Each structure stands twice: as C-alpha cells, then as structure tokens.
Amino acid sequence: MCAAYLAFSLTMSSALLFGESADGKSQPDRLDFGSVRMGATVEGSILVFTDAEESADLSCDVEPPPFLKVTSIRRGTATDRSGITKSDFCINVAVSSEEMGEHAGTLAVAVGLQKTTIPVKVNVRTPDASATRILIVSTPFSSSSTGDATVFDPWLRLVESAKLNPDYLNVVRDQPVLRDLDLSDYGVVLLGEYGLLRLQDADIAKLKQFVNDGGRLLVCANSFFQGTVDRANQLLVPAGLRMTDSEPNDPKPIELTGSVILKDPLTKSVRRVKCFRPSPIAVTDKSKGRILVKAPQYPGEGFVAAGRHGKGQVVALGQSLWWNWLGDVKYGDCDNWQLLLNLIAKTPE
Fold this sequence. Notes:
Elements: E1 4-5, E2 12-13, E3 26-27, E4 31-37, E5 43-53, E6 61-63, E7 68-79, E8 85-95, E9 101-111, E10 114-125, E11 132-137, H1 153-162, E12 164-169, E13 188-192, H2 194-197, H3 201-212, E14 216-220, H4 228-236, E15 241-243, E16 254-257, E17 272-275, E18 281-283, E19 289-294, E20 302-309, E21 312-317, H5 322-327, H6 336-344
C-alpha cells in the first residue's frame, strides 16, 4: 500500500467530550465538510481507537483520498471499562480545495493488523464574492467532538442557506490560533472551544482589531468548557459585556420563549430557544452592550448578548459547543438554527 506515514509526536491523553472508546472505530464516524469555496482552508481531525495496549512501538499508517492531506498524527491513550489502557491516534487532515466538484472517498488507517476506514466528503464550489466569508475557530469536525457526525447536518444546511464561505481551522497546541491570517478578509469570526482556550496574546490583539475595524465576532463559551469563560471575557469586556463562570442548576435544557427573547435584528423570526448548561452574560456598559435573550435564572443578565467595539460588533453566546447546541436532537423543535443564522449572517445592526 502506498501509504502516507507520519511519525507521531509526544503521547497525549485523549479527553473525549462525547462517545466511548470502540476498537477499530473512529470519532467522528465520518467527515462531511459540506459545501466550501475554492481556495478555502478546510481542516478537521479524526480519533481512531485501537485494540492495542499502550506502546511506543506502535505505528500508524494512513492513506488519504486524493483530495485530502494528512498534516499530523498524534498518539494518545484511552482506558476501557476493564481498566486496560489502549492506544488511539488523532489524525489531523486538510482538504485540497483547489479543484472544483464533489469529492468523496475514504481515509484508510492501519495500526498493526487493525484496519479502519472513515468516509470523507466535501463539495468544492466556485468562488462567490457575495458570500459572507466566515472563519470558524476551532473546526467542529474534530476528534474531540462526537461519534455521530449527523449532529453537524443542521450546520451544513445553514451554510447553504446563509450563502456562507467558511474556513475551518484546526487549533495546534502552542502555536498562534490565528496563525498569520489577515482577518480583514473575513466578515465574521466564530470563536469557541479550543479556539478560545488556546488564544495567545497576539491572537487576542488581532481579534480586537478585527472588531474595531468593523468585523463581527461571535464568542461561544460557558462554564462547562472550563477555561473558556475567562478567555471570552478578554474579548467581551471591551464591548461592554462580561460572562459569568457559572451555570443554572438544571439537568434539562432550558426553554426560553415570549418576552425573554428581545426584539432585535439579531433575533428576527426567533420565537423559541433552548439552552443546556448556558453561562449568563451581563451588560457592563449600556452604551455598548444589550441583551438579546434573557437569562431568567440570572435577573438582568442574558444567555445571548451583543456589544459594540469600534466599528464592529461582538456577540456572546453562553454555549461552548455551538454545533451541538444547533444540531442535537433535543434542540430540533426550537429556533436555535434561526438564531445562529442571524448571528453569523451580516444582518442590519
């Protein structure tokens, strides 16, 4: 087999947000990047579970389809229910988006005698200057997301409906989250999860300048994803907002309707919102900030808020896993989809 072989880096411990270790399976179970534009940066990652006990001698051979590049492989560990520590492999990939068309294939992974195949799909479309260019940091299509990739389907439909031109970035440990990107190329930046957690000072300065120059920054954080609230506040405070590192004591999703959803261009056609373990946001400067969706458990605060900084806007969403908040089955009977569409489309302010 003509395989792409990469040496793995230092052993890492696998922290899975969803799913359980399953020998010969992957997380997510497939990579469907949906529609992107030619020249877009499209990155993701896959976690492959093995039945091999932890060993530095293990190697991982990966054969990607022609439109996909393997950028790195890291070996980690997971402990099964019997207490045995086994190896797993995180494989970072990037789409070659220079050739237009619908591309589909499989990512073939071999660890010793074990073989795993992961379906991969992307639709590379022609450039469209009228499409809103949005930077997603970090990519939702990641090894720490979910075992069931159908949760991403609502997001992929939204990309089509909103006429978006998305770029998806993997976040690399100890490296600038925003790399050397020129943020003036984007209309919207959606920042969450490890994109927030691993921000460096230079990244924060670039994001503040992006907003000051007229961009819209959507910050997704909550107490559940430890460390994201403090990072979020470095970007929210200049826009007259502050998130509290707390969450309601409620084991079920919170339903928000009626007067709790304030009239605003960003809440147009939104009648019902559900949140799970959301963190509240306070307006610290009323000349800059406003509540969009109130938090009844926290009088005077909200679970969604917006603030101004310079010529641009910062929107705070008290949910870190925005793709799950959009796509999980428990949110299918509400307007989360419409709300997120409003927040990332360049609607009047």
